[in-house]
Amino acid sequence: MSSEISVLDSLAAVAAEEWNALAGNNPLLSHGYLEALESTRCASPRTGWAPQHIVLFRNGTLQAAMPLYAKNHSRGEYVFDHAWADAYARYGMQYFPKLVCAVPFTPVPGPRLLAHDTQDRLALISAAKQLVQSQRCSSLHVLFPDEDDRAALEQAGLMLRANVQFHWQNRGYRDMDAFVAALTQSRRKRLRQDRRKLAEAGIEYRWLTGRQIDTETLRFLYFCYVQTYLEHGNRPYLNLDFFERIHDRMADALVIILALRHGKPIAAALNIRHGERLYGRYWGSTEFVPGLHFEVCYLQGIEYAITHGIQVFEGGAQGEHKLARGMLPVQTWSAHWVDDPVFGPAIADFLERETPFVREYIEQLHAHSPYRQVPAAETTSRAPTVKRAGARD
């Protein structure tokens, strides 16, 4: 069979149905989501995310693909390699540009090498390595790959790097009270106090999805999102046009949690649903209310997951404070190939020494679990039956 590998500077050059056939039903890897990032110029050469997607066609049919970007900075990745860039600079070498395989601005683990078998995954990796050399990039980075991709990446000689995120697991809780009851006494007390104070402050909540999300709500969400970035002294990565396009293209995957006081919205959080998983993405508020951030970003997401039979709520990158809200540490990965005979081995040595510390850190976090030790039946005896939706991550 005739095979051809190409590099595309725009996802618009690929038919959406062919790309989505490889991405499955994963909204964050869908053609609509990734192309919206490009067409709204959120992921573009202007912002330092120049698309360089690798596609493999066989007999004219798309068989494999790799969402890939040439980058001249490390922002929006959530896997931190600033020390590596600094080391290059100290020796008068250029770390940028580099090639990054990722969903821009999205620290969600999942498929990165969109292929049906290991052979095609390895072909994508080989093409990416050749692109590093032909474009004189320093390195290749694959962020948050799933298990199948990770095995292929390691087989192809990439170095694996461990990291930590905090995810909530549904243990079959019949309602929010059952979840709270599973926590330790001190965590239960604090959580109930915080929620009571918010209720006494007149805060109520609404969950909106699909076409329940109107233009006014979407614009309020965006205002909150921008406010959060500005409060931290950063420019937002995304624009309103992007939010409007993904709402138009994948509204049923969006879950917006609104906080209202006396009927007026004062905070919002955007989550994205994929089968049995809910991903917490962005949040913001128009006024400060103690405890509101934790309630809107985490506890309301957990309550939504329990109500709708969702099995995992991913709280995003970093944040030990999530432990107190019932999220436990999980190990995530990235993969790296550094095309330099000196820095490559040096980084490999660094990663070999770093990984045990990450594992030890996870063990220490588990030692401070917010959950009391109870028989499994106490939280799973009334577990709802949830039909699997074919999630790939």
From TrEMBL:
The protein's name is: GNAT family N-acetyltransferase
Which SUPFAM superfamilies does this one have? Acyl-CoA N-acyltransferases (Nat)
Q: Where is this region: Disordered?
A: 373-393
Query: Which Gene3D superfamilies does the record cross-reference, listed alphabetically?
Result: 3.40.630.30
